[in-house]
Amino acid sequence: MGKEDKLRRGVVFLFTALVVAVPLLCWPYTGPLQRLVTLQGAALLRFFGLPATSRGLSIFLPGFELVITRECTAIEALAVFTGVILATPARWSKKLPVLLLVFFLLYIGNLFRLVVVGWFAYSGVTTLEFAHGVVGYPLSLGGVLLFSYTTFRLLPESLDSLHNLVDIALSRISKR
After folding, report:
1. CA torsion 134→138→139→145, rounded to 10°?
2. What SS3 class is residue 6?
3. Quick check: helix, strand or coil at residue 176?
4. DSSP structural state of residue 72
């Protein structure tokens, strides 16, 4: 692939990914998704034997409250993966199953993170703040790495597109 073609493909990929991801990243109305995460998070905590209840956008456990904010919905990761997958130059019959699988895995992984944070705090192993920051964030990062790997394995064209962008950036830097 020539430099011109690589540049064109990289620009088209980046532009398409941004056109898809930015509106999702800026979407202010995540209330229904937050409510769903609240209800399902409380149900999962109860499934694992914790006395969780929910009201509004909060999960209550004895001694503390988990407030489900916009960030607790994994909307940022969903937006980025949606942008990358939809921008990938591949057939829809290949992209759509990957998109649905990654959405499902991200959502389930996010609920799992919520349950782990709630369990750590409820069990007295640590404070809610520590569980959220020191346990929850690494779980989120690990999930994003796992879902990136899954996306790149199932849709290798997405990795090729990202390589094109990196190659373009590196070639611009090395010219200076």
Report:
1. 170
2. helix
3. coil
4. G
Count of other CB atoms within 10 angstroms of residue 151: 21
Q: Smallest Cα–Cα separation from 71: which of 115, 118, 132?
A: 132
Q: Residue 66: beta bridge partners?
A: 59
pTM: 0.83
Q: Rounded to the nearest 5°, which phi and psi values hold at 19?
A: -60, -35
Residue pair 66/58 in contact (Cβ under 8 Å)? The answer is: yes
Domain coordinates of the chain in residue numbers? 3-174
Tokens of 29: 């109305």
- Residue 76: which of 14, 127, 143, 126 has the closest Cα? 143
> Could you read off the pLDDT tens digit of each residue along the chain, which spans 176 residues?
677 777 778 788 888 888 888 888 887 788 899 999 999 999 999 999 999 999 999 999 998 899 999 888 988 899 999 999 999 999 999 999 999 999 999 999 999 999 999 999 999 888 888 888 888 889 999 989 999 999 999 999 988 888 887 877 787 777 76
Q: Decide: 83 and 45 in contact? Cβ < 8 Å.
A: no
CA distance 130 to 108: 22
